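user: Please supply your own:

assistant:
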Amino acid sequence: MGDLLLDTTTRQFRLAEAPLALIPREYAVLEYLILKTGRTVTKSALSGSIFGLGAETDPSAIEIYVHRLRKKIDREAVEVATLRGLG
């Protein structure tokens, strides 16, 4: 994804050749989104993949993780778009 690379061996993201420091849940969110590149991902599908199906979670948790990822990733390198009402 442009300047964003995922090394599946070390499970490390790199942005413009530099390691991208992510907590485990941020990593899981970004990995899931990259695996679904080009497709709309619903909040419930993302939540299910991160927390497990049927887990009781605050609906805003996913929004918080995505917000943190946007702050850590240069928007010109990779864009995480929100489609209101879709995903």
The beta strands are 4-7, 12-15, 18-19. The mean pLDDT is 83. The helical segments are 24-35, 43-51, 60-72. The radius of gyration is 13 Å.
